[in-house]
Structure formats: structure tokens, C-alpha cells
Write the C-alpha cells for this entry.
Amino acid sequence: MRTLYVDGTFAGWREVARQALLQGLAPHQLHWQDADSCPGLFDHGQAALPASTGHLRVPAQLLQQLECAARYRGEARWSLLYRVLWRVVHGQRSAALAGDPDGSELQRRIKAVRREAHHLHAFVRFQPAPAASEVDLLAWFEPRHDILAWASRHFSERLGQQRWLIATPADGVHWDGQRLHHHRHCPRQWQVWATQPDSEGQALWQAYYSSTFNPARVNPRALKQHLPSRLWRHLPEGTLIPQLINQARHGAQHHSQAPLLLRRPGKRIAPPDSKD
């Protein structure tokens, strides 16, 4: 079995896969590794494939699907892509469709990647950055898949000229107001800055969240489905969510926000005098 090494990017995998296809190497003959994978039992060194020339016809839509699925972190990350590519190139167009076992797994990974990108857009919380960081805003996020460089462009279109960075346990991105810079290995200082909460900002956000939370309408199952509990610990409101759900389960659902309103100081308004 031949071991092929990938630099962890789709572009890197695509070039290696192209050489393997041109040399006629079938999927069962290859073992794929990147920086995150463990050495296999049948490794035979790290020699690169010899360069081959030739032309391959690959549908553009398939390349888009493979690029999206390549962001999935999991077992057989690269081997599935090559298996689908091999089959399509050899005439099995159904290999990328949901009715095929390989195609079904490919589509599942694409959905998982897109869902994780949505989580980044919806649940990242920017906070004011320290002066030493030379940015205006920063945030911490722990994506399940390799979506940061791709999905973070969403913020460059919405935050205008503000400079910001997003740090993760693996990589990081920095927007300097003009261009987006991706670091495959997140600088340690970014991680330190991003994981230090802004106490004042968090207090304001928690006050807002608790005042708008309506226990009469809470559905814990739907809440956890749309906002996974693994993300709670890095949200300002994350510490409040279990407490508010617990209050809803123990009777607050019947009273909605009435107890909170009753505790607020205010002026009592007497009913108007009735006239016969």
C-alpha cells in the first residue's frame, strides 16, 4: 500500500490526487495522511509520487462538492474524496449522488460542513480587543470542522473597515480592513486574547439575554438542536442557559416573564372610577 501525504488543504490534496489518477493508482492501493492523522500499519516512506503529464476531465460541480467535503474533519477524510473522484473519472457518475454509499457519505459531510459554517456565523461573539492586538474586535470559536478560512469571509463583508481576528484551537484568521489573512497554526497570543472575557460586555449581554428569554416558549430539545451545548461555554449567555431552562422546567413556563416584571420598581396605576 502506498502512503500519500497531504498538507491539510484541498489544493494540496487535489494535486496529489491528480498525480495518483494519472498513474492509475486505485483507491484500495493508497493510504492518505495529513498532519492530524496517525501513521498506518502499511506505510512505506514519505516519497512523493513522480510527476506525470496528462489531462483529466472532472465535472466542475464535483470539484465544488469535493472542496466542501474536504473541510470535514473525521476518519477517511481524504480517502473518501479520492474514491469518489476515481469512480467518477472512470465513468461511475452516480458515485457522488445520495443514492450511492460513497455519495451518501459525501453529501452527509457537505451538510455537516455547511451546518458548522452556520454555527460560526450565528454564534461567534466579538468583543473589544486590547490595544496591543492592533485590531478592533476579536473572538474565540471551536469549530468541529476546518471551516474558518472559508466561512469567516462572511464577517469581512459585514464589519466594513473594522479590523478583527478569530482564534481557534487550531487555526486563526485576521482581517486588516482590506484583506483576510489565514494562519494554519493560530498564534498563541491570539488564543490568549480571545479567551479572556470582557467582563463589562458580558454583563450587558447576559442582562439582555435574560430579559428577553421567555420560559413559556422554551423548547429545550429544539434549543440544543439549533445551539449545541458544546458551544455554550464560550458564549456570554452560555452560563445562563442551563439555569433558565431549569427554571422553565420548574414552573416558570406557567408564569412567563411575570415574576421578573413584578420585581421591578414602578408606579402603581389605579383603575379608573366607574360611572353608572
Residues 39-45 have pLDDT under 50 and may be disordered. The CA atoms of residues 5 and 134 lie 37 Å apart. The chain has three domains: 2-116, 124-194, 199-259. The longest helix spans residues 101-123.
